[in-house]
Specification:
396 residues, alpha/beta, Aspartate Aminotransferase, domain 1, Aspartate Aminotransferase, domain 2, 2 domains, seven-stranded mixed sheet, 37% helix, globular, binds pyridoxal-5'-phosphate
Amino acid sequence: MSITPLMPVYPRCGVRPVRGEHCHLIDEDGTRYLDFAAGIAVNSLGHSHPGLIGAIQQQAATLMHVSNLYGSPQGEVLAQRLVDLTFADTVFFTNSGAEAVECAIKTARVYHQSAGNDERVELITFNNAFHGRTMATISASNQEKMHKGFLPLLPGFKYCEFDNLEMVKSLIGPNTAGFLVEPIQGEGGIRTGSDEFIKGLRALADENDLMLVLDEVQTGVARTGTFYAYEQYGIEPDILATAKGIGGGFPMGACLATEKAARGMVAGTHGSTYGGNPLAMAAGNAVLDVVANDEFLAEVRDKGERIRTRLEQFIGNYPDMFELVRGKGLMIGIKMKSESRPFMIHLRENHQLLTVSAGDNTLRLLPPLVIGDAEIEEFFEKLSAGAADYENTEAA
Ligand SMILES: *Cc1c(COP(=O)(O)O)cnc(C)c1O
């Protein structure tokens, strides 16, 4: 037998973490890595955060799981907090980002079908989007590498160029149900939707009774320096998918909606065995205890600005390697002149710095939101050393 016990769908690298300490990961062989990947924007509180650990331990010892057939005092607390913090009136808890997007897609469709508008089934989605790996969420993306071998796709998605409002207008028709969009494309390369684009989608949704569905799975829960990124656009969505950072490493997500948008999500229409169980709710509440306040959010914005300003100066020293810096808060991309993956590998192997490569030649920086000044210094030391010897290798 040559297949590995772990289904070989990931090209896993040689780093084999066994322990985490704040912003560092420690490998099987004791090597320490500076973690600017944070489980891909998941470990918002870093590793081994005492508040998060304590909450999970205590809840695990008290009550780990009950069915959604019963009342959920734990879920009500977290749902109410999310309602108070956002545009939303109601929340459905999931176990992952893709499930949160699935729930968002269903909510958008049933919004129309519950009013007898059975033809309004199509969501306009955007090139290079990433919404997850389930059948519906791969169908919502135009990325063929995710489709290959898994056909047929689910119908009901129309692909549009990102940040192109004129093209969006041309695609709206009698079958349109709404828009599904990442305000900042994560996997697509930290491509930030412009103000005009996101505001324009809101206006088009209002004019045509369409659902504006935001995928904030990566941008959400303080990552961009506001609780959700939509706040920075001065608009509110109808439906929003969130996950990744919300559990700080505990697998959970949620679909948020206004009362109007959720009009079709009545008893019996949707469900999840695990979604919203007490253990997940304890993790979510512990994360919000840390991140959902003005001081913390201001710090994320401040740290993000400081890192971006320094990065902009830094890339000036390497005009052949780097093109520009973009992103919001602590969701930062360095667009390179060529593929970012070899440089990401170089930083990992030779400088013990973990980053993530993304689309559009972009190196993604997603440090824990609790990162301190010492780790920011360590990052720039590693990056400087990494760029210097990478440039030399390339020249040789
Ligand atoms: C990661 C991600 C998802 C999928 O989340 P999973 O938890 O892996 O299912 C969906 N949308 C966006 C924008 C993401 O970054």
